[in-house]
Amino acid sequence: MKSNKRKKPLTPEEIRKKAKRILQDNPIYINDEPSVVGSPESLTEEVEDDDGSTKNQD
Amino acid sequence: MLATHEDAERRYESFREMVRDAIQKELPYTDRNNIRLGSICQNALMQAKLWSEDPRRLVDWPWDGGYRDYSYRNPKRFELATWYGNTLAGLSLGRPSYAGTRLRLEFIESRPSSSPLKGRIVPITISVAELYASVIGAEELRIINPVDERLIEYYSSFGYTYRKAAGEKSQKHYLVKAIS
What pLDDT digit, counting tens, does each position of B149-166 carry? Predict the structure, then answer.
């Protein structure tokens, strides 16, 4: 669901805390890591609208 | 380049830089002083050019020309070059949706062989992308076409959900996580 509320920009301290938390919550190492994730074909598509269609980005 | 385009490029590069710096300082590795997170600079593109000569490379995408076009079209993009010392170990690109409610991580490529960061490129990239999504106010991160079954299974155990797009225009599958 889309939110119409505009989020307040994060302060540098909030960014630092978030960085720490993200790294704690995520894996730090993957056995047999694939050398490619995703595909370059996605890069040539138009920007995806939030409803799934595509548009040019400003 | 139009002024608005240039403004967006400058503004979003400052977000990208802030995010890279924040993650780099908190990396949980004993050798983290050797790891550097940067933008996709000329030096990175030159090293990536050498990847195309590696028979173990799995894709045939020219980073130099491809990146230039992509970066011009997407000033709000996510981009990351991950270095180990002077060796380029990984590159990645993504971009927000039009209204910015989600960030799509579209492509991650690691150095095809003898990567000093083998096993760590995807985790580092996804962590940087999550923080970038948060900073630009996106509500979710999508890892587009994750392809690798083990990766899907692995990230599903870390709060991601695997979905197949149902829309007619987009048949993509992705891993998705809500960003707080």
Answer: 888 988 998 899 999 866
Complex ipTM value? 0.91
Whether B74 and B95 have beta carbons less than 8 Å apart is answered as yes
Dump pLDDT digits (tens) for B27-50.
Answer: 999 999 999 999 999 999 999 999
Calpha distance B65→A41 (Å, rounded): 14
What does the block give as tokens for B166? Answer: 């149902």
> What is the interface size between A and B, counted as CB pairs within 8 Å?
168
B78 CB-side CA count, 13 A:
33
Contact B169, A53 (CB under 8 A): yes
Q: Which structure tokens are listed for A26?
A: 């995520």
Q: Does A4 touch chain B (CB under 8 A)?
A: no
- Nearest-angstrom CA–CA distance, B70 and B45: 13
Q: Which domains does chain B have, with CATH numbers?
A: 3-178 (3.40.630.30)
